Amino acid sequence: MSHVPVMLDEVLHSLAPRDGETHLDGTFGGGGYARAILESAACMVWAIDRDPEALGRGAALVARFPGRLHLLEGSFGDMLCLLNAAGIAALDGVVLDLGLSSFQIDDAGRGFSFRHDGPLDMRMSRSGPSAADLVASLPEAELADTLFEFGEERLSRRIARAIVKSRAEAPITTTGQLAGLIRGVVPPSRDGIDPATRSFQALRIRVNDELADIERALNAAATLLNPGGRLVVVSFHSLEDRIVKRFFADAAGRAPSPSRHDPRGLAAAPAPRFKLLTARAVRPRESEIAANPRARSARLRAMQRLTQDSRTPP
Predict the structure, then answer these.
(1) Which fold, 105-208?
(2) Tens of pLDDT along 258-310?
(3) CATH superfamily of 8-103+210-305
(4) 162 CB burial (10 A radius; 0-12, 13-18, 19+)
(5) Measured on CA atoms in the order 51, 54, 55, 56, is the torsion positive or negative?
(6) Whole-prediction pTM value?
(7) Could you tell me the residue ranges of all domains in the chain?
(8) How far is residue 147's CA from residue 143's CA, in Å, rounded to a whole number?
(9) Is 84 exposed, middle or buried (0-12, 13-18, 19+ CB in 10 A)?
Protein backbone atom coordinates (compact mmCIF):
# COMPACT_ATOMS: atom_id res chain seq x y z
CA MET A 1 0.00 0.00 0.00
CA SER A 2 1.37 3.45 -0.85
CA HIS A 3 1.71 6.09 1.81
CA VAL A 4 -1.03 8.73 1.84
CA PRO A 5 0.12 11.94 3.58
CA VAL A 6 -2.57 13.20 5.95
CA MET A 7 -3.96 16.75 5.54
CA LEU A 8 -1.42 17.51 2.83
CA ASP A 9 -3.19 20.62 1.51
CA GLU A 10 -3.55 22.04 5.02
CA VAL A 11 0.10 21.31 5.81
CA LEU A 12 1.31 23.10 2.65
CA HIS A 13 -1.01 26.05 3.30
CA SER A 14 0.32 26.44 6.85
CA LEU A 15 3.97 25.88 5.95
CA ALA A 16 3.82 28.15 2.86
CA PRO A 17 7.25 27.19 1.44
CA ARG A 18 8.98 29.71 -0.82
CA ASP A 19 11.92 29.65 -3.23
CA GLY A 20 15.33 29.65 -1.58
CA GLU A 21 14.10 28.50 1.85
CA THR A 22 15.30 25.56 3.92
CA HIS A 23 12.69 23.26 5.46
CA LEU A 24 12.70 20.18 7.65
CA ASP A 25 10.40 17.19 7.38
CA GLY A 26 11.10 15.76 10.82
CA THR A 27 9.11 12.58 10.20
CA PHE A 28 9.97 11.53 6.65
CA GLY A 29 7.98 8.26 6.63
CA GLY A 30 6.73 7.73 3.10
CA GLY A 31 8.11 11.07 1.91
CA GLY A 32 4.71 12.58 1.09
CA TYR A 33 5.27 15.93 2.78
CA ALA A 34 8.88 16.25 1.62
CA ARG A 35 7.90 15.61 -1.99
CA ALA A 36 5.04 18.11 -1.86
CA ILE A 37 7.27 20.81 -0.35
CA LEU A 38 9.93 20.28 -3.00
CA GLU A 39 7.33 20.43 -5.77
CA SER A 40 5.73 23.61 -4.41
CA ALA A 41 8.88 25.78 -4.28
CA ALA A 42 12.52 25.81 -5.35
CA CYS A 43 13.65 25.17 -1.79
CA MET A 44 15.83 22.69 0.10
CA VAL A 45 14.41 19.99 2.37
CA TRP A 46 16.17 18.06 5.11
CA ALA A 47 14.31 15.00 6.33
CA ILE A 48 14.76 12.88 9.44
CA ASP A 49 13.51 9.40 10.23
CA ARG A 50 14.60 6.88 12.84
CA ASP A 51 13.38 4.03 10.64
CA PRO A 52 16.18 2.88 8.29
CA GLU A 53 13.59 1.30 5.97
CA ALA A 54 11.94 4.70 5.46
CA LEU A 55 15.26 6.24 4.49
CA GLY A 56 15.92 3.38 2.10
CA ARG A 57 12.62 4.06 0.35
CA GLY A 58 13.57 7.74 0.11
CA ALA A 59 16.56 7.09 -2.17
CA ALA A 60 14.43 7.46 -5.31
CA LEU A 61 13.11 10.82 -4.10
CA VAL A 62 16.65 12.03 -3.39
CA ALA A 63 17.59 11.12 -6.97
CA ARG A 64 14.55 12.98 -8.28
CA PHE A 65 15.57 16.18 -6.46
CA PRO A 66 19.39 16.17 -6.63
CA GLY A 67 21.00 18.57 -4.18
CA ARG A 68 17.65 19.61 -2.72
CA LEU A 69 16.61 16.65 -0.54
CA HIS A 70 18.88 15.34 2.20
CA LEU A 71 18.01 12.41 4.48
CA LEU A 72 19.25 11.98 8.03
CA GLU A 73 18.83 8.88 10.19
CA GLY A 74 17.85 9.54 13.79
CA SER A 75 15.10 10.76 16.05
CA PHE A 76 13.42 14.09 15.38
CA GLY A 77 14.00 14.93 19.03
CA ASP A 78 17.71 15.08 18.15
CA MET A 79 17.23 17.43 15.19
CA LEU A 80 19.50 20.09 16.66
CA CYS A 81 22.49 17.74 16.78
CA LEU A 82 21.67 16.07 13.47
CA LEU A 83 21.30 19.36 11.60
CA ASN A 84 24.25 21.05 13.28
CA ALA A 85 26.44 18.11 12.26
CA ALA A 86 25.23 18.68 8.69
CA GLY A 87 26.06 22.39 8.89
CA ILE A 88 22.46 23.61 9.17
CA ALA A 89 21.90 26.18 11.93
CA ALA A 90 18.50 27.63 10.98
CA LEU A 91 15.29 26.67 9.19
CA ASP A 92 12.39 28.45 7.53
CA GLY A 93 9.87 25.73 8.23
CA VAL A 94 9.40 22.48 10.12
CA VAL A 95 6.65 19.89 9.68
CA LEU A 96 6.12 16.98 12.08
CA ASP A 97 3.65 14.17 11.36
CA LEU A 98 3.42 12.29 14.64
CA GLY A 99 1.55 9.28 13.26
CA LEU A 100 2.82 5.97 11.95
CA SER A 101 3.31 5.63 8.20
CA SER A 102 1.17 3.23 6.21
CA PHE A 103 4.30 1.20 5.54
CA GLN A 104 4.82 0.59 9.26
CA ILE A 105 1.16 -0.19 9.93
CA ASP A 106 0.77 -2.58 6.99
CA ASP A 107 4.02 -4.49 7.52
CA ALA A 108 3.08 -7.37 9.84
CA GLY A 109 6.77 -7.94 10.58
CA ARG A 110 7.06 -4.58 12.34
CA GLY A 111 4.43 -5.52 14.95
CA PHE A 112 2.73 -2.12 15.11
CA SER A 113 -0.77 -3.33 14.26
CA PHE A 114 -3.00 -6.05 15.67
CA ARG A 115 -4.80 -6.31 12.33
CA HIS A 116 -2.00 -8.53 11.01
CA ASP A 117 -0.39 -11.22 13.15
CA GLY A 118 3.35 -10.77 13.44
CA PRO A 119 6.21 -10.41 15.90
CA LEU A 120 5.39 -8.16 18.86
CA ASP A 121 8.09 -5.62 18.02
CA MET A 122 6.96 -1.96 17.55
CA ARG A 123 10.51 -0.54 17.42
CA MET A 124 10.78 2.33 14.94
CA SER A 125 14.57 2.24 14.92
CA ARG A 126 14.95 -1.57 15.04
CA SER A 127 17.07 -1.19 18.20
CA GLY A 128 16.46 -1.38 21.94
CA PRO A 129 13.83 -3.38 23.85
CA SER A 130 10.79 -4.48 21.85
CA ALA A 131 7.16 -4.55 22.94
CA ALA A 132 7.55 -8.29 23.54
CA ASP A 133 10.44 -7.53 25.92
CA LEU A 134 8.26 -5.12 27.90
CA VAL A 135 5.32 -7.50 28.02
CA ALA A 136 7.65 -10.25 29.25
CA SER A 137 9.54 -8.26 31.86
CA LEU A 138 7.57 -5.35 33.32
CA PRO A 139 6.13 -5.92 36.81
CA GLU A 140 2.34 -6.02 36.83
CA ALA A 141 1.95 -2.59 38.48
CA GLU A 142 4.35 -0.91 36.04
CA LEU A 143 2.68 -2.59 33.09
CA ALA A 144 -0.73 -1.33 34.27
CA ASP A 145 0.67 2.18 34.75
CA THR A 146 2.11 2.11 31.21
CA LEU A 147 -1.23 1.11 29.69
CA PHE A 148 -3.06 3.78 31.67
CA GLU A 149 -0.57 6.64 31.17
CA PHE A 150 0.25 6.13 27.48
CA GLY A 151 -2.96 4.46 26.32
CA GLU A 152 -5.51 6.09 28.63
CA GLU A 153 -6.81 2.56 29.14
CA ARG A 154 -9.31 2.51 32.02
CA LEU A 155 -9.06 -1.26 32.38
CA SER A 156 -5.26 -1.24 32.52
CA ARG A 157 -5.03 -3.22 35.75
CA ARG A 158 -7.30 -5.94 34.44
CA ILE A 159 -5.24 -6.23 31.27
CA ALA A 160 -1.92 -6.23 33.15
CA ARG A 161 -3.19 -8.96 35.45
CA ALA A 162 -4.20 -11.08 32.47
CA ILE A 163 -0.84 -10.54 30.75
CA VAL A 164 1.14 -11.57 33.83
CA LYS A 165 -0.99 -14.66 34.29
CA SER A 166 -0.66 -15.63 30.61
CA ARG A 167 3.09 -15.05 30.36
CA ALA A 168 3.66 -17.33 33.33
CA GLU A 169 2.30 -20.16 31.19
CA ALA A 170 3.88 -19.23 27.84
CA PRO A 171 5.70 -16.23 26.33
CA ILE A 172 3.60 -13.60 24.53
CA THR A 173 5.55 -12.99 21.35
CA THR A 174 3.07 -12.04 18.62
CA THR A 175 0.58 -9.26 18.02
CA GLY A 176 -2.19 -11.80 17.57
CA GLN A 177 -1.50 -13.38 20.96
CA LEU A 178 -1.58 -10.06 22.78
CA ALA A 179 -4.61 -8.70 20.95
CA GLY A 180 -6.55 -11.90 21.57
CA LEU A 181 -5.67 -11.85 25.26
CA ILE A 182 -6.86 -8.24 25.61
CA ARG A 183 -10.09 -8.93 23.73
CA GLY A 184 -10.73 -11.73 26.17
CA VAL A 185 -10.81 -9.41 29.17
CA VAL A 186 -12.00 -6.07 27.70
CA PRO A 187 -15.55 -5.90 26.36
CA PRO A 188 -16.13 -4.38 22.89
CA SER A 189 -16.86 -0.64 22.93
CA ARG A 190 -19.95 0.92 21.42
CA ASP A 191 -17.86 3.04 19.04
CA GLY A 192 -16.46 -0.04 17.36
CA ILE A 193 -12.84 0.62 18.39
CA ASP A 194 -10.96 -2.63 18.90
CA PRO A 195 -10.37 -3.36 22.63
CA ALA A 196 -6.64 -3.77 21.93
CA THR A 197 -6.21 -0.30 20.40
CA ARG A 198 -5.26 1.65 23.53
CA SER A 199 -2.90 -1.01 24.86
CA PHE A 200 -1.05 -1.27 21.55
CA GLN A 201 -0.74 2.53 21.47
CA ALA A 202 0.65 2.56 25.01
CA LEU A 203 3.28 -0.09 24.33
CA ARG A 204 4.37 1.62 21.09
CA ILE A 205 4.76 4.96 22.87
CA ARG A 206 6.74 3.36 25.70
CA VAL A 207 8.98 1.36 23.34
CA ASN A 208 9.90 4.44 21.29
CA ASP A 209 9.83 7.06 24.10
CA GLU A 210 7.51 9.04 21.83
CA LEU A 211 6.10 11.69 24.16
CA ALA A 212 9.48 12.78 25.48
CA ASP A 213 10.75 12.82 21.90
CA ILE A 214 7.90 15.16 20.91
CA GLU A 215 8.83 17.56 23.72
CA ARG A 216 12.46 17.61 22.57
CA ALA A 217 11.45 18.08 18.94
CA LEU A 218 9.17 21.04 19.65
CA ASN A 219 11.84 22.81 21.68
CA ALA A 220 14.47 22.15 19.03
CA ALA A 221 12.23 23.33 16.19
CA ALA A 222 11.41 26.56 18.02
CA THR A 223 15.13 27.17 18.48
CA LEU A 224 15.99 26.53 14.83
CA LEU A 225 13.29 28.60 13.15
CA ASN A 226 14.24 31.88 11.52
CA PRO A 227 12.05 34.97 12.09
CA GLY A 228 8.89 34.32 10.08
CA GLY A 229 9.59 30.59 10.12
CA ARG A 230 6.66 28.20 10.63
CA LEU A 231 6.15 25.05 12.66
CA VAL A 232 3.35 22.69 11.58
CA VAL A 233 2.45 19.61 13.63
CA VAL A 234 -0.06 16.87 12.83
CA SER A 235 -0.96 14.71 15.84
CA PHE A 236 -3.19 11.67 16.08
CA HIS A 237 -4.27 11.19 19.68
CA SER A 238 -5.00 13.30 22.73
CA LEU A 239 -1.65 12.70 24.47
CA GLU A 240 0.26 14.08 21.48
CA ASP A 241 -2.12 16.96 20.83
CA ARG A 242 -2.11 17.98 24.50
CA ILE A 243 1.68 18.38 24.42
CA VAL A 244 1.57 20.37 21.16
CA LYS A 245 -1.31 22.57 22.31
CA ARG A 246 0.43 23.45 25.58
CA PHE A 247 3.77 24.15 23.88
CA PHE A 248 2.16 26.39 21.26
CA ALA A 249 0.18 28.28 23.90
CA ASP A 250 3.33 28.93 25.94
CA ALA A 251 5.34 30.05 22.89
CA ALA A 252 2.57 32.43 21.82
CA GLY A 253 2.08 33.88 25.30
CA ARG A 254 -1.35 32.26 25.61
CA ALA A 255 -0.62 30.15 28.69
CA PRO A 256 -3.06 30.65 31.60
CA SER A 257 -1.96 33.26 34.14
CA PRO A 258 -0.85 31.98 37.56
CA SER A 259 -3.22 32.33 40.48
CA ARG A 260 -3.17 35.75 42.12
CA HIS A 261 -1.86 33.95 45.19
CA ASP A 262 1.09 32.53 43.23
CA PRO A 263 4.25 34.72 43.54
CA ARG A 264 5.08 33.91 39.91
CA GLY A 265 2.16 36.12 38.92
CA LEU A 266 4.14 39.19 40.07
CA ALA A 267 6.86 38.64 37.47
CA ALA A 268 6.50 40.12 34.01
CA ALA A 269 5.47 37.51 31.48
CA PRO A 270 8.11 36.80 28.81
CA ALA A 271 7.43 38.33 25.41
CA PRO A 272 5.77 35.89 23.00
CA ARG A 273 8.16 34.37 20.48
CA PHE A 274 5.49 33.03 18.15
CA LYS A 275 2.00 33.75 16.90
CA LEU A 276 -0.59 31.04 16.40
CA LEU A 277 -1.63 30.38 12.80
CA THR A 278 -4.40 28.05 13.97
CA ALA A 279 -6.67 29.34 16.72
CA ARG A 280 -7.66 25.73 17.43
CA ALA A 281 -6.75 22.35 16.01
CA VAL A 282 -7.68 21.95 12.33
CA ARG A 283 -9.51 18.73 11.48
CA PRO A 284 -9.38 16.82 8.19
CA ARG A 285 -12.18 17.36 5.70
CA GLU A 286 -14.93 14.78 5.45
CA SER A 287 -13.87 14.00 1.88
CA GLU A 288 -10.36 13.12 3.07
CA ILE A 289 -11.67 10.93 5.88
CA ALA A 290 -13.87 9.09 3.38
CA ALA A 291 -10.88 8.50 1.09
CA ASN A 292 -8.40 7.75 3.89
CA PRO A 293 -10.03 6.60 7.16
CA ARG A 294 -6.66 6.77 8.94
CA ALA A 295 -6.92 10.56 8.76
CA ARG A 296 -9.99 10.57 11.03
CA SER A 297 -8.13 11.31 14.28
CA ALA A 298 -5.63 13.82 12.80
CA ARG A 299 -5.28 17.29 14.33
CA LEU A 300 -3.15 20.05 12.79
CA ARG A 301 -1.69 23.01 14.68
CA ALA A 302 0.66 25.68 13.27
CA MET A 303 2.54 28.71 14.55
CA GLN A 304 4.97 31.28 13.16
CA ARG A 305 8.05 32.83 14.72
CA LEU A 306 7.62 36.57 15.20
CA THR A 307 9.91 38.82 13.22
CA GLN A 308 10.45 41.03 16.27
CA ASP A 309 9.56 41.18 19.94
CA SER A 310 5.81 41.76 19.91
CA ARG A 311 6.15 44.14 22.86
CA THR A 312 8.75 46.36 21.23
CA PRO A 313 7.35 49.27 19.17
CA PRO A 314 8.32 49.01 15.48
Answers:
(1) DNA polymerase; domain 1 (1.10.150)
(2) 555 556 555 556 688 999 999 999 999 999 999 998 899 999 999 999 986 44
(3) Vaccinia Virus protein VP39 (3.40.50.150)
(4) middle
(5) positive
(6) 0.88
(7) 8-103+210-305, 105-208
(8) 6
(9) exposed
